[in-house]
Write a structure and sequence with these properties.
This protein is α/β, with parallel strands linked by helices. The protein is built from two helices and eight strands.
Length: 125
């Protein structure tokens, strides 16, 4: 196998500061890196060995045009807990907490301010 693990997830946005602030506030994340360089601009968060980078890319304009193309998935303690917490904050969910078709995990699916789809997974409801 050539791939060893997932190193990072990059979410590019025309409004990266607002999007990074949303992720930071919604998920109570600590900023690891904040760069404003000519060729590397964004805000990074470390999540148990995987780097979440929300940055500016000059080829990205507006909201996601195909939000179903890629869906970052995040492990949580309880999908129902994250659903309740984020719903209270006005986050749109397109899949409420439910048991997977294989019956071995629970999942919920939400939408971020740029219309990217994000998923939550847990072995507990």
């Amino acid at each position: 196998m050539l791939l060893k693990s997932l190193e990072s997830i990059c979410i590019w946005s025309e409004s990266y500061k607002e999007l990074a602030k949303w992720y930071q506030e919604m998920f109570e994340l600590e900023v690891d890196t904040n760069l404003e360089l000519p060729d590397d601009t964004g805000i990074g968060f470390m999540l148990e060995g995987v780097y979440l980078w929300i940055g500016y890319h000059d080829k990205v304009v507006g909201k996601s045009k195909d939000r179903y193309r890629i869906m970052p998935g995040f492990k949580v303690d309880s999908v129902t807990e994250i659903y309740n917490k984020l719903s209270e904050k006005g986050v749109e969910f397109i899949r409420k907490p439910s048991l997977s078709p294989t019956h071995d995990y629970y999942a919920a699916t939400a939408v971020d301010p740029d219309e990217n789809i994000i998923q939550f997974f847990s072995d507990k409801e």
